[in-house]
Write a structure and sequence with these properties.
about 120 residues, alpha/beta, 6 strands, Transcription Regulator spoIIAA, 4 helices, six-stranded mixed sheet
Length: about 120
Amino acid sequence: MDESLPLGLDRDGSPPLTVLESRAGPRVVLTVKGEVDLASCDGLRAALEGVADSGVSEIWLDLTHVGFMDSTGLNVLVEAHRELNGRSFALICPEGPVRRVIAVSGIDKVIPVHVNRSAADGAT
C-alpha cells in the first residue's frame, strides 16, 4: 500500500515535501521527496508519528530524494528515534549534502544510516 501525503505548498504552488508510505511485513518505509526544513518538518513529524502509532516493529526513512535538510529536520529525526522506544529505525541516505549534515551533527552515531535500501536490508 502506497500513500502520498503532500505537505504544504511552495511559492509556485507545488508541494515542497512528499512522504510516500509502503509496507512490507513488519517494516514500513517512508520515502521522503523534497526539502526538510522549518516549513515542512511538521509534516514529516506527523508522518513518523503516524507510523510509530501503528505499532510496526521496523521503520526506514528513505531520504534518497531529499535535496536539503536543516536543523529542524535533524531534530525530527532525533525525536523519532527517541519516541520509537527501541524499535528498529534506520535512515536510507546516499552520499551528498543531506548525508553530510547527518554526519556533521553526529546523528549517524545514534541512528543507523545506509547508502541504499539494499545495504539496509543486508544489515537487518
